[in-house]
Amino acid sequence: MKKYLQLSPFIFAFLLFCSSTEAIAQEKKEKESKEVSKYERANAEYLMIDAQKFYLLEDYERAIAFLEQSLEVDKDNHAAHFKLGEIYLIQRKYDKGLKAIKKAQEIKPDNKFYYILAAQLHKSQSNLQAAASEYELMLKNSTDYREYLLDLADVYVGLGNYDGAIKMLELTEDKYNIPNKFTTQKKELLIQAGKKKEALDMLKKLTEDFPTNESYKLEYADLLSSTGQKTEAADILKSTATSSSSNFLLINLKLEEGDFEAAKPMITEIMTNKEADLGAKLLLMSNLSAAGSDKISLSFLDQQQKTLYSIYPNDIEVIKTGEKVYSTLAEKANSQDKAAYETQALTALNQLKDLNPSDYEVWNQLLTRAYNQKSWETLLTNSEDALSYFPNQGLFYYYYGNAQLYSSNGDKEEANMAFDQALKLARNDEFLTSKIQSKKLEFALEEGNTKEIRTAFEIPVASGKADSEAINLMLRYLNDHREQEIIKDVLVVVDDLIKEYPRDGDLFHLKAKVLFQLGRFADAKQLIENFIRQKPANISGGLLEVYGDNLFMLNQIDAAVEQWKKAKNTGNTSDKIDKKIADKKYY
Asked: Same domain, yes or no, for 504 and 558?
């Protein structure tokens, strides 16, 4: 057998060549059988078009179905994997989205958009470290990614990697050929990284390399000032060309040093300069009016605001700033000047109303001011105008109802209708609902309308206890009135509320007061004593005062005085408590 296997070298080489050729041919044949034909590829592309159609129609399930069919025909269709990833991102199926986009990256690793989508999916899962890794792969494997470098900078900031963020800013500057474009951002990042010295050095070098660039000087001066180097900052600012920005910083420095006299001429220069930026002027006025009156003269601010009015007589932003300035001045002024500043603020509001009558905030300020000052005639006039612009605002109906109720030419029926409308529109605003309900109760009490009293009083706010404003209103009413029919109705309502809020001390205070007014002193005494035993933590001064009142009526004078004293120490009593204690007598 061996002699037959002993072939010559030539024959052996020929046989080896033949077998290799056959293997290569077989491999080529297998590869061709696995490759997608041009017809199959065309079919896959048609399926992709259908998928895109349903994607645009936001029919994502059908879009997914067509994409999966496309991938069955051509599993290496990286665009289909990418589109699946996009849909899964929209559907918040982040793990599926990452699985799809990873396949797209494997097939086409140089496509930057595949890394961007992967980063978005990771960010949606709050995985910033993984998102950063995707952006870093984009930088490694693809090109023309410069517009996404700032996204990576943001991710680095989120991770606290300020050095990495700065590198991305610098790379962006290099790619776009915009040197020092992100100077401010780099300064802020250095400060966040605790590298103030490096930030100062960077800005110092920029001011030296570009001596005519005012923005670098302003940045440098601002940082010097924030690090306590105010003298150095002032020197830098003085070397700049006169501008509102440099003057603004200088003014702040002088005010911080308490040198108002040095700041005055610069302030005047900014305000009188018609070419200076109006925004800078308004910001300056807002900051100056917010400063303490010991740092700046109120009359000087008044003068500067009048200067702005003269230069920009009908500018809405100037008038808005004027209203804020004069409102602030009125708070700081003495009684002699206060009224004048309040008039100026009111004038500004009226100007704003006339210039833009649909401005909700202006109407709100006007009506609130009139309501707080109980200027009912003014309120009625303004409310009527406001309602034409804001027909669906519950607050305005509340104001309007008050105006009708108290104005000399008001209509009480109209007032009640306004309160009803306000109540409908208040919706879930508990505070406004409470105010409206209390006003309806007050109106019903004034009219002696027992039905309305019950309706108005039995609607508590949904905050775990009855409406305290309504309770206080009823207590004030009971102090001054003795109408037995109304008081009996109130007792029924209070009993219903106590069942709902058994821990509400204010309700028991009111019930005790009702029983007192009905002459049921022993019942009131028993009620209070039961409440004190069961809910000692919820006892108010008002409840203890009424306890003392009932004890007095039961001829337990010493015990009554003792409870009045406890009531006074607890607080929230009537203004007669001291007289009761001193005279040992009920008033």
From this structure: no
More confident residue, 190 or 428: 190
**Is 510 inside any structural domain?**
yes
Same domain (yes/no): 571, 506: no
pLDDT at residue 492, as a whole number: 84
Asked whether the beta carbons of 520 and 540 are under 8 A apart, the reply is no
The DSSP 8-state label assigned to residue 538 in this structure reads G
Does residue 444 share a domain with residue 487?
yes
Task: State which of 488, 505, 529 marks the end of a domain.
Answer: 529
Residue range(s) defining the domain that contains residue 442? 437-529
Q: Is position 513 within any domain?
A: yes
Nearest to 185 by CA among 199, 205, 206, 175: 199
Cα–Cα nearest to 466, from 369, 412, 394, 538: 538
The tally of domains found in the chain comes to: 2
Question: 251: exposed, middle or buried (C-beta count within 10 Å: 0-12, 13-18, 19+)?
Answer: buried
Between CA 408 and CA 366 the distance in angstroms is: 20
Q: What is the pTM of this model?
A: 0.51
Q: How far is CA 587 from CA 346, 409, 483, in A?
A: 44, 37, 19
Q: How far is CA 424 from CA 306, 379, 383, 444, in A?
A: 44, 21, 18, 18
For residue 554, is pLDDT > 80? yes
The contacts found for 292-301 with CB under 8 angstroms, 24 or more apart, are 293/332, 295/255, 295/258, 295/260, 296/255, 296/260, 296/263, 297/260, 298/329, 298/332, 298/333, 298/337, 298/341, 300/264, 300/267, 301/325, 301/329
Residue 439 and residue 401 in contact, taking contact as beta carbons nearer than 8 Å: yes
Same domain, 524 and 561: no
Tokens of 231: 């003298």
Range with the lowest mean pLDDT among 170-174, 268-272, 452-456?
Answer: 452-456
Is there a single domain that holds both residue 445 and residue 519? yes
Among 499, 529, 559, residue at a domain's last position = 529
Same domain, 578 and 506: no
Q: Is residue 236 within 8 Å of residue 213, measured between CB atoms? A: no
Q: What share of the chain is helix, strand, coil (3-state, %, to 5)?
A: 80, 0, 20
Q: Under a CB-based contact definition with an 8 Å cutoff, are residues 564 and 580 in contact?
A: yes
Are 510 and 544 within one domain? no
Residue 167 lies in a domain: no
Residue 277 lies in a domain: no
Token representation of residue 245: 């920005």
From CA 425, how far away is CA 443, in angstroms rounded? 19
Mean pLDDT of 145-150: 92
Instruction: Say yes or no: 443 and 486 in one domain.
Output: yes
